[in-house]
Amino acid sequence: MTPLSELYQRLFFPHYIINVFFCLPYFIIRYVPTLKNYLDLSLEPPETKIYFVIGGLIILKFRTLASTEEWLSISFSYLKILTLIMFYLYGKTLWAVLYAIAMGVFFVVFPQPPYQGPTKIFELSDQDLLNIRHNKFHELDENDKKSEKGKGKEQVDQYWIIFFYTTWSKTCEVFEFTVAKTSVKYTSSEVHFGKIALDLYPSVAEEYEISLSPTSLDLPALILLKNGRETGRLPKRVEDEQLGQIKNQRLRNAKVTWDRLGWDRSMKSIVETFKLDTLNKKDILINPAAN
Q1: β-strands 121-123, 191-197: how paired?
Q2: What is the pLDDT of residues 38-97, one digit of tens each?
Q3: d(CA 81, CA 66)
Q4: Terminal-residue alpha carbon distance, the chain
Q5: Which H helix or E strand runs over 148?
Q6: Topology annotation, domain 121-290
Q7: Where are the domains of the chain?
Q8: In this protein, which residues make up the domain named Thioredoxin (predicted)?
Q9: pLDDT at 1
Q10: Long-range contacts of 26-32, Cβ-Cβ distance < 8 Å, separation of 24 or more
Q11: What is the DSSP-derived secondary structure letter of residue 208?
Q12: H or E element, residue 235
């Protein structure tokens, strides 16, 4: 269970606080006795059914989404949509328009803040990534430095899981929580986590064949580097041999789209794809003092 102190660190921002107030106007006007006369209650829209649908979606998302931030973002969106629908059904079209404009202004002025919780992900530049590829990146924490000294001249493989993202992608922003949680649990003297903003370093995106198009299915992306060489990637690339077995071009395109769009973004998927449990066991065998 997430400690309250961590939730406070992650969620006590104007974006989340103001969003709570944005979700209340309809309920205040609808149920406060001195204000409900502002609504034409003779219309009696199917409120109960709408409440059940919105509530059901919020509960469903709570069971499926990875982070509190993502769930809150989705829940706020549903409740604000509910407010727009109810204003419209009650004939308050002007209220709905003004509310939509206010939401747009709020979105621009108070965007959702980046993840602020525990993490062991290094923020990288293109030069840092180049150094990692040549095993020359040395900005490790003190524990890693001590463990590196304890190994003497023994050659040890270095693994880097690089999170490729863009600052404008909502999906990347949400996925960072999962990568951060994974980094806290699996960072070791051999396994490290980094992230690089591709909109700041487009040449890196080109080098790793990651599209920066607004409709790109390549983002977010995780790439595992072993001693600087790519040995794994999420989302996984569909092999030509697999596509060759599908004769219909539309089915080929559908498979590529599904594999890139519908891939599992859970921590379990990251661990299994990159075999992090195996790498950590290997580190314990090589350097038991560090664990």
Answers
A1: parallel
A2: 766 555 667 888 889 999 988 887 776 667 888 888 899 999 999 999 888 888 899 999
A3: 22
A4: 24
A5: helix 142-150
A6: Glutaredoxin (3.40.30)
A7: 4-109, 121-290
A8: 157-242
A9: 59
A10: 26/82, 26/83, 26/86, 26/87, 30/86
A11: T
A12: none
